[in-house]
User: Fold this.
Amino acid sequence: MGEVVAPLLKGLFKATILVLVMAILAFMGRAVYGYMVDSPLLALREVVIEGCRKTSERDILSMTHLDRGPNILSIKLATLRSKVETNPWIERAEIRRIFPDRISIRITERRPAAIILLDRFYYIDTQGVIFTRVPKDHQIDHPILTGLHRDDFKANPDEAWGLISKALRLIRVIEGGEVLSQKDISEIHMDKAFGISIYTKDGAIEIKLGLDNYDTKWKRLERVWRHLRKRPFKPAYIDCNYEKRVIVKMRDVTAFYAKRLIKTL
Assistant:
């Protein structure tokens, strides 16, 4: 009997000692943490903010209330990141403590790819996120996406987002172009049946590009455009929806020369 009880008592004694040690360590840990949280040595003295272009450091400080100088251990980084990311221009934020007295906030802002016209003008980023309204006094410096309405996103969201995805893909193709650039484009029109058409700023020339193969169509368009810009008159529209050719409909050439003749008189 004694041979059985002795090992049990020995094991119970070890377990009791282990529990006591863990309790003491936990108590000491809480005490140390409490001391550090209250310690003036860890009071926030500097907030380092990086990545601001559209946003401002003042706005971020106002959102986070870090200007009140809390202890950096009392700051919940996940909560702070969520607050910063409520700013529509901020795609994501990385926040970390720098001991003993700094918080680092590194933000990645959304990059507008275009402006979409729904009930009002909104910025849309390279990922297709419609993230904020364009202020009335802001200059329109991106192509405008047209052809969709708010109801389209409810009635057939896959079709609406699919058209937006095609328009953004075309914008990436335009950015890599050599003849026509994004600054030459005023409008990108999205149509459920006919796909994407663009309108130039100079002369409002309609260029039909359809629903796919934008890389190939754009290269063919640029070859035609090099030739057209040497002409004294502009096309009415350009249709790139054919496999191996581009259809160009010219404006009334007779009217052009009549106007030119009148100017010389």
Remarks:
- The helical segments are 2-38, 57-64, 77-84, 150-155, 157-175, 214-228, 253-264.
- The chain has two domains: 40-109, 112-264.
- Confidence is low (pLDDT under 50) at residues 31-37, 255-265.
- The chain has seven helices and twelve strands.
